[in-house]
User: Fold this.
Amino acid sequence: MARTPYMAGNWKMHKTVSEARVLASELVSELSGASAKLMIAPPFTALSAVSQVVSDSPIRLGAQNMAPEESGAHTGEVSVAMLADVGVEVVILGHSERRHVYGETDELINRKVKLALAHEMEVILCVGETLEEREGDRAETVVQEQLAAGLDGVGEDQLSLVTIAYEPVWAIGTGRTATPEDADAIHQIIRNRFSTMYSAQAAENMVIQYGGSVKPNNIVGLMAKGNIDGALVGGASLKAETFVPIATYDRT
Assistant:
């Protein structure tokens, strides 16, 4: 089957509400005819405002994280119901910054994944190795372990709500990018893992994004690879002039 490319922008801790509204408006205007599936994930404070801007557009609203519990005494957390209430359709979980800066474990990420899916929220599950793990020839093992743990207890019937993002930690925000060949090799490993965890059809259907210093000048080489189905974009998603060329790239 031909998988629809999926281009997502993770704005991280950037953009005030007014700045977010301006950028979202520019993207709605410039991406109206894009053939790819599109998503932007502003900071929590801007979700409501951006939701209003993108509500009648093809751009999905994403969140960068969510709590592992539905409600309660969890100071500083944001629940899946709160996200849905402001129009969020997609949540990014297991991002390397959550894993390596804030200490989120595979078990915690899995709880979030299952909770999001129980509420029919789409999930982008991030997996990827550190430079030390890659140099130690453990990239394949680490990615497969993160994948298996992150999807533990998730049924094949729920996979239509799941996207995988492979993001080598050493390439995020560093200007370094895995070569298209390196990235495609890991994407192939991920796809093969879905065959063993689920089925050959699940593997064929799974959309796998690449994340890690994606820019307009390297999206062509990445998307030329058969197992790379889109991008989870960080810094280049913060300006329309750099995100639009990525979001509108059509490998056909």
Observations:
- Residues 6-21+33-87+95-237 form a domain with the TIM Barrel fold (CATH 3.20.20.70).
- Residues 180-197 form the longest helix (18 residues).
- The longest strand covers residues 122-127.
